[in-house]
Amino acid sequence: MRKVCTRILSIVGNVVTVRAEGVSYEELAEIATAREKSLAQVIRLDRDTVYLQVFAGSRGISTGDEVKFLGHPMRVGFSKSMLGRIFNGSGIPRDKGPAVTENMIDVAGPAVNPSKRIIPSNMIRTNIPMIDVFNSLVESQKLPIFSVSGEPYNELLARIAMQAEVDMIILGGIGLKFDQYLYFKHTLEESGAMNRAIFFIHTASDPIVEGLMVPDLSLAVAESFALQGKRVLVLLTDMTNFADALKEIAITMEQVPSNRGYPGDLYSQLASRYEKAVDFEGAGSITTLAVTTMPGDDVTHPVPDNTGYITEGQFYLRNGRIEPFGSLSRLKQLVNKKTREDHRAIMDGMIQLYAQYVEAEEKRAMGFRMSDWDKKLLKYGKLFEKDMMDLKVNIPVEGALDRGWDIISDCFNPNETNFRTELIQKFWPKNKD
Amino acid sequence: MNKVLGKVVSISGNMISVEFKGDIIQNEVGYVLLGKKRLKAEVIKIRGDIAYMQVFEYTKGIKVGDRIEFSGQMLSVQLGPGLLAQIYDGLQNPLPELAQEFGFFLPVGTELPAIAPKKWNFTPLVKKNDKVTGGSFLGHVPEGIFKHKIMVPFYIKEECIVESIVPKGNYKSDQTIAKIRNEDGKVIDVSMTFEWPVKIPIEAYAEKLSPSEPLITKIRIIDTLFPIAKGGTYCIPGPFGAGKTVLQQITSRHAEIDIVIIAACGERAGEVVETLREFPHIQDPRTGKPLMERTIIICNTSSMPVAARESSVYTAATIAEYYRQMGLNVLLLADSTSRWAQAMREISGRLEEIPGEEAYPAYLESRIANFYERSGLVRLRNGEMGSLTIGGTVSPAGGNFEEPVTQGTLKVVGAFYGLSRDRANARRFPSVSPLESWSKYTSIIPQDKIDTARSILFKGEGVNQMMKVVGEEGTSIDDFLIYLKAEFLDDVYLQQNGFDKVDAATTAERQQYVFSKIVDILRKEFTFTEKKEAREYFYKLRHNIIDLNYKEYGSNEFKNQEKKIDSLLKGENHA
After folding, report:
1. Does the pLDDT of residue B231 top 90, yes or no?
2. Which residue in A has a C-alpha nearest to residue B355's C-alpha?
3. Whose CB among A123, A185, A420, B292 lies 3.0–4.6 Å from B280's, allowing a Cys bridge?
């Protein structure tokens, strides 16, 4: 029989307490207020006092409301029929479709045994040269997109969602602005990518606690599909909102804050989500891309800082472009030797030249005289930014490599570059020298 | 004996409090009984009839009123032959065996024996009526490349008489191989394995000595400028992406040491996987056997339960001390101690202790000190020597070294390798900062040469800073030469290509030889008048010495390259 309490003892922040026995840790409960029903999760047990975190927030809860314990932890349905559907942060449909009740799985399951992991070896093509050529995304990788508010990170995610070479996409929105949510929905619907996508959306106007479950729901569903052999790409935006929700609950629970108010377990909390990225031997995989906005463009802020220690590299999105410096895919070495023989040479060569361009540009800005070489670099830099770095550029990696040779040959003579002779003979465009 | 029982009264995160009857021990292990599952937990605070316990598993599903069974034992590891080449979690559960039984995911509430009962070929070293005590060698079994010594359990402190010992032959590891009688006449059965509590250092040796002999890591900047000694300690703090883990991995491959224990504590699983999958295929140049045979991995990655992360470094230290007792040189690499400290912080927070700086517990520094103090060079009771060297990485928040874990560590270690993001960004690897790092141990290189090199590095950095303001034009040729020399030293010697077969590992002999050559160049007076000329000259020199770095030491190519460099040095004035 389900346990029911009819007396709420305290309401503090989004946490309520009731008196009940036989309740298990992290069990779910349903609170029925005059207006709606909301889910709540047990976050602390102290003798017969039960602390519940209310997903819909505590506004409007009466001390006389009924709290019904459901006897199980947070669960989410898992079936093929979820493709193309949109759910909220409690796993309840946001679209007008029916609730998914088959195959209920627990969220936040156990960790993968490290000895069952394999060294990743497949590249995920996105047709974005700054990713494919310079910092390839690798199956089972976890990468954050470090950015400041106002950058087009959601546009970038949407493009990746449309184009990435994976079997399915799970989008987890945490504190997403409503218009951004609509943007994702429309963009994916128009491109036809929606039928391979599942959305778990928590918008900025929803109660903040509900956002906490979004990564867990997304990753639990992703994991189940991956075990069935699907290559799943999980896109999360924005993990800083997730961390802020953690902070809010921690403060409400009177936990001692560690750094700028964030709880001491921020690292573990983030890691247990990011580490879900995995390549199952003989089955599918989970790859995670997560937007992390940096408050004040400060990479040492606790959220990006902890994230950087967990993830396998990072993309910096600045001025609408993925920065070539600072951005890093730690796993790219595992895949970029297999694409085309000139991949690594172009990757290193173009960035070295671009670094020289940046220096030349600084000199120019300070009013120094430009040498012929500087002028070549300036021309190169402009072309590189326009034809490679611009996020609108949309070509497969082979095309991007060819374009790289075009740009270089437009600006330099072969002997001004430090490519190996065989590569120049093979790839240098024939109509120029 | 009746087992002490208790029941859960509160749960918060991985912390439970338990009402108990009877006597329990601080750090005793208890199990939360959850149906068939037994969740392991450790007592960390006792107040009245309430014990506070940290649970080594996820606490999802525990109820108030659930029963606890206390074990009467402190958290311990099993010691004996069969540890080498194993991969354990923080509580010494063998991960490959868990994977075999449970598949992709780590099961909750399951324990497997750390040492599989396997037959070993035992050769006795003592005979009836010999006098023995804790740590005495009773015999040995072959374990990979070593003679694994079978010892009298360390908890036996008094002198005992060997009553009987089995003859040479094959025995199972849990079989009795000797009976020893203590002073009170009690006879104790000894098998090849025994348990030892992880938080208590093993001290079954005659004395601890001050570390003196250098430990060769084959990383030039370390061995030459900032050496480690066998039995010493060092720490590697650095921001993310600076190459801490890579440096630890390179050390674990090339260090001249008998046994390497890697404690992957709260870091990415992917990094452990590289070690797991590659070490069995990499040959140890010293023995010709796969590197895995000298390696033990204790792996508690970031998504595994936090409390087990806290104990994983102790598990690693205990196993390391056990092998030191056999007279071996052991290197323990802990990556990263910050995650371990954070685990302590989480637990301290749940205990509602008064927080210290950045919410770390007040006892943080003493815990760090206790951990590093488990290192050391020891003389065993039979006169043999053994050593345990500990190297820990630190992941300071925001890359700022002024934080409690870095500062607490710096107080107790003998060498400090500060990694710098600037060096990493400039692709200067290893990114150990030559200006910030220090070591208290003696180098393989004479001190006067080190002084020359370091003073050039410091002066060169000064000139570099000045040049940023006044430009190259405003710098005198003498200053400019110092700058060139400093860059030259950095490029050709301090940086090392970890991916090249030859350059990745530089032997002590080669370091002594090449470094003295480089110091000669640093001390040489040059008479350039033009900066352009000087730069070109040094670039040429640099190019030639980098080429030398890729040549096998003592080979003909090496000698030819050396001749080229010598002639370049002689011809300087005509350049």
Report:
1. yes
2. A256
3. B292
